[in-house]
Structure prediction request, 1319 residues.
Amino acid sequence: MKSSSNYQHLYVVVEHEDGMPVPVSLEMLGEARRLMDGFNKKYSSDEKVVAVVLGHNVRKLCEELIFYGADVVICVDSPELQHMRNLIDTKVISQIARSRELVAKFSNASEFIKPRYMFFAADSIGRHMSSTVLAELESGLASDINKLVISDLEIKHEHKTKGQSMKYEKTLEMYRPDFSGFLWTTILCLDNRNPANEREYHPQACSIIPGVFAQIERDTSRRGAIVEYVPKFDEKDLRVRVLDRKIVKSAVDFDSHKAVVSFGKGVKDSPEQNIKLVAELAKEIEAEVGISLPISKKPFSVSESTNSNYMIPDRVVGTSGRKVAPLLYIAVGISGAMQHIAGMKESGFIVAINPDENSPIKDECDVFIKGRMEDVIPLLLEELRKQRPTIEVKK
Amino acid sequence: MTATTTTTNDLNVAVIVKLEPDFSEGNVSYNADGTLNRAETKSILGPHSAIASNAAFYAKVKYGARVAVGTMGPPIAESALQQAQLLCDADELHLYSDRIFAGADTLATAEVLRAGISKVEGGKVDVVFSGHRASDGETGQTGPQTAWKLGYTFLGNVVDYNVDLESRLVRAKRLISLQGFYDIIEEVEAPLPVFISIDPSYKAFFNTVSQRLAFEKYQKEAKLRAENYKQFLKVLNTQQLGIDPKLVGLPGSPTIVYKVERIPKAKASRKAEVIDGANREQIARVVSNMYEALGGMVIK
Amino acid sequence: MEHYDVAIIGGGSAGLAALKRLSDLNKQAILIEAGKKVGSKNISGGILYSKKPKHGKTYNVEDIYPGFLQDAPIERKITQYMLHATSNDKIFTMDLTAAHEYQANFGYSVLLNRLNGWFAKQASESAERQGGGIVSGVHVRSLSWQDEKTVIIETDELEPFEAKAVIAADGVNSEVAEMTGARAKFTPEQLYQGVKVIVKLPEEIIEQRFGIGPDEGAAHLFAGDITLNHIGGGFLYTNLDTLSVGAVYHYDSLMERPSEPYTLINALLKNPLVTEFIKDQVAIKEEIDKNLPKEEQLRTRFAVSKLIKTWNELRDTYSSRDGRKKLVESGKYKSEEEIRARLDYVQNELATKYDTKFVTDYIELEYGAKLVPDGKRCAMKKPYYKNILFIGDAAGRGVFIGPRIEGLNVGIDDAVRAADAVARSIDRNDFSTHYMGEFYSQSIEESPYTRDMKEIDKDYLKIFLDAARDVPKDIIGQRYGVVFKLMSSGTLRGLAVGFANILGYDRLLPLVESEDTYVQVPIELAEKMGRHVRATYAPTIPTIAQRIAQLKYDDDRISHIKVLHPNSEFMKKIVTLCPTLCYSMERGGEVTLQHEACIECGTCAKETEWHHPRGEKGVIYQYG
Prediction:
């Protein structure tokens, strides 16, 4: 078994657009910082949080990342890397992950093989990038993670340990919420210690859900190293050409609305009618309409226009969708899965409409209206119309 | 008779699909603890796999492409292949099935799929389609990892694509969503072979009369074929696929599921007032609070 | 640009017949249909006739589709044809079966969604062999000419393509006619508005109730107070295991005194004879005890729903000869008695365990409406424009003689004539109006249907007179006096009819098609000579909102109709006359449109910019 110093440091693959880091990149650095501070303390070591940045004209960005928790920033600046292209980016990131030369610039690299841990963003780009990078590095990946713990575990697994109980130190526990939002599955990336098939698997990698972890406060007193890397390109690697990029306006705009009305599986008794009711309520208070994650999977049969208008990923409020913080948030027929709560708990005034008093959302709202939406919303509408302020409300 | 249609047999495509639980209302069944009751829930061709099949059908209608569909799974996964054939008039169906494939994570699965795609008759596959993710599992990793092992250029979140048969290029539109930023539609061009992960919003669209007629023709053919799908089916195990047993199934999986637990109820961050939805007075009061929240003073 | 010899626009029975005929003549033809599937936008009364005219020849449906009588999903062969005069609960019935059989091989009740689906299968198989076929989900947006010969067709969905000839089969609201200016939009005087509902009724119950055998059917017509003083009448046709119940009224009579279409059909449904005709046994779920734990409530709800579904299915199957046979053959049940036993068991379970009530009521499956062109008043004299030939409703060729309405068979006959004209032109590569349009026009002139639109057939007239034999002269004679005397006498009748035909149908029409004929006379007849009919229950009639909710739509975000004159008198009446309440009046008096519930009948077409929705969008009929 190779020594522990073969695998060191936590590499964070940073995403950026228009010279700015995508918020999840800073969130990843924040969590990486917290984890590694704990790690270094517990194991008396000095492993680093290494940010990896690919792009063009990204020097300024790299400097910022130090202030947000990176110890080292590996900066790869090349016109070929201006837009993220999976093929070339995977190659470069993998080269970097395997480069002992690079590590030598900021740490003792004599036995370095690959990073110990690796973080990616769980968004359009990162989810695919993490998959291909880990295929290239031939190690394990867990995606859509919202909780991380580093610990020493006693593992007894029919295959990994041939049924014996073995200690795996410095294991990254990667927690991912399942599709219902109520269960956590913990994934581990573990070496095979079964003599029939011994194999080491590093880095332990995961893609992280945006909006879950907190960034650290920007700290200009932090110091770190920026290491340049000149990538080796093969003509073949550049074979994908970006012809055009167009910004698309989403039909859904939470930010410009003072109120949001969301609905969940509680519409199931008569989805078409109930969604119309919700839409009416939203219209009355000039709110944008949101949905819970399960609704975006189109679990009910409704008309084509309701389907394409409402049951779309753009409307999802939650960690897999948008985080919103309007002045008024109304959750209709939503039980309150953790993912959804995380997406709206910063709202000003929260009202929940639900017939079941045991719904978790009761602990996250200011007013819990017990009742079926078919009965409550019409009543609300009446009162809203009656009480509609006759003078423009002050902002 | 002057309708012109280009039907060269120059394009070979494959689709990788998955049999998944049917999550739609009325079909899905949950246990008391909220976990999926797989025994009571019907299994169907996964919705994203279906969209990928539609994308492959587009290639058949527009370019006369040869279509193969493959899946890794136990014998019941055959029904996913049959349903896929109905959608894309597949010429060849593969079931990669072997006891030792069990317990595979995405890397181990990708190894099997890579080997399977190389066994497609009719020549080297030019385009492989996969869905965006499975509706159970949902990692979205298997597609890109299979692409990488095949050495095919990976294009993800594709919402539209076309093939230039002469110059052997694919032009595709991709939908990129960045948190906190706008959405971007990116148009890319890549030489064949490519691996396309289809965005859930993809809709195949045929815009000439001849394509529509070809669509009808192939759809009818697909119905007939799917009724006799077994004639098109090949079942392949480890040996026939020529893969190293150490790289598949549980032995070939870097990751394992360690535990599953209920997400603990977070400490209540707010103290809710519970009111009766039928009580008009209370509703009226809530409404007044709502208006207050929306914007300062409410003047009647 | 892609190029095809012939493009047929509209996938109704006429368009499909044209496609079949052209393909059988080895010509390549494509058919463009706006609905997602052929049949989804079709609706008819409906009875499909096959005729054997004394003079001339008609192309009948079984001539075009050889397997028609054996394989087509037709409903029942109508063997009884009754006319009822109504006044409250008094009904006077006249047997007009002779009128139904006059010069007819048969008349079958039909449901167009499935029938046109069958036509489409036959036609497309034939067409595909010629390199043509059916393209659905495509809406034609414009037609233009590059040169005299070639029509360029633009659609909402496809790249433009060319055709040498076009057959316009796009119905009474023909957009092709509108776009090309081939004819003016039809006006209310030229149209009827028909509205109908499909009622569910198990097969053998239909047979018992209407006194017909398994291969027979009944048609019942109604005039009198059920018309709410409009010119026209009601109908009820037996299908295999459903009834088509509807009403058809002169559009201009509706204009004079607007009534909501659903009100008109409700008036018919409430007539005691009709009420008794449509009745069935219906299962009513009981409210679930809210005090039970939630899981128990849910489990009960699903259990009851499933049981009721089983009960309905078993009942329908048991009531069908074929159904019973198939069920026993499948091995699920050893005998028909066993099915009965199971049915009784399920009913008992529902009643005792879940308190389900079984009451007498009726079940509606689908509501729909359509405009029908009155060929006597609006048939196109020259049904072509450049190299476009118009057939069926698009050419205004509906045949109304008394209570009998023929549209489907006329469209099919027109289609064959048009197809033959186009085929002839393809052979000569001459699509000029002289060679093709005029030839077609001439062929149409020779059609017995055209004659029916221009002249009164004295032998047909005699049938009515004979049927009215028992009617006291004072009721009819009072109104029609001399005319009636003339008509009653055999010798004079021939002269009289000849004279009338010279005078012109249109002079005579106001007399015949008047409130007297459809309202007053029948009411009097019923009052004086009718028998009492008692309804044994009060039918629960769905509201218009419920009827609309039952319809299936694929909504388009953009509206397919634009209101041009929001303040006109016509539009104000449309608020009442739109069958699905799409129009409403704002406070300022303007009429506004909500297009989502539109069933594309065309009632509002005259003063709007009227189109069908884009391809695949709009209403999707299940029965038609």
In short: Helices of chain B lie at 47-63, 78-88, 106-118, 142-150, 209-227, 238-241, 280-295. Residues 129 and 209 of chain B are 26 Å apart (CA to CA).
